[in-house]
Design goal:
This protein has 190 residues and is α+β, with helices and mostly antiparallel strands. It contains five helices and twelve strands.
Length: 190
């Protein structure tokens, strides 16, 4: 039985460059510090390998600053294509590849065995119990029923209280940790 060439290519791409293959999904949202390569078919002068700045922009030949942070890959391609079509090219064919992902971090403090700054697994989401496990689990004096998460929402700090014990039993839904969150596990008061 012969494996179609496309399936073989996808398997090899996933095997040797798993981050690049996942980044090409339509739902991936570009963020500051992602390293991207942008090519325009048959326009060598319009090739850019750039890092997205903190304000979500890149510097692109002919166009100057282009805001692509917060857009999906498809939306970013559409924006660049439209800008090129407007003043420069008749039918630009743009491709965008994520060459490197921004590191997404969160903090875990309090009664865990390995507190500190943790990195989210390669572009995956992580729930609260997995974040605590990544931090070595609870200490013997931890109070899993008293966990707080500090999160910035629209520039304001929000504090969320969660009962990790009830979550582990399935009594409350799981909670997704976001980059920049600070998780604190309280100490038990015997």
């Amino acid at each position: 039985m012969r494996v179609p060439l496309l399936l073989f290519f996808l398997a090899v791409t996933t095997l040797f460059a798993p981050g690049v293959a996942r980044a090409q999904s339509a739902s991936y949202v570009l963020s500051p510090n992602d390293q991207v390569q942008i090519d325009v078919f048959q326009e060598e002068d319009l090739r850019a390998n750039v890092k997205i700045s903190q304000d979500g922009t890149i510097e692109f030949p002919l166009l100057g600053q282009v805001r692509i942070g917060g857009l999906t890959i498809g939306q970013a391609i559409a924006r660049i294509s439209e800008m090129l079509r407007k003043d420069y090219l008749v039918n630009p064919r743009v491709t965008l590849t994520v060459q490197g992902f921004a590191k997404k971090r969160f903090n875990v403090f309090g009664q865990v065995n390995s507190p500190g700054v943790k990195e989210m697994p390669d572009q995956e989401s992580i729930d609260l119990l997995d974040a605590i496990a990544l931090s070595g689990g609870y200490t013997r004096i931890a109070n899993p029923g008293n966990i707080t998460i500090k999160r910035r929402v629209n520039g304001k700090e929000e504090v969320i209280r969660i009962n990790g014990k009830a979550m582990a039993k399935g009594e409350v839904p799981s909670f997704k940790v976001l980059p920049g969150d600070t998780i604190t596990v309280a100490e038990s008061l015997f």
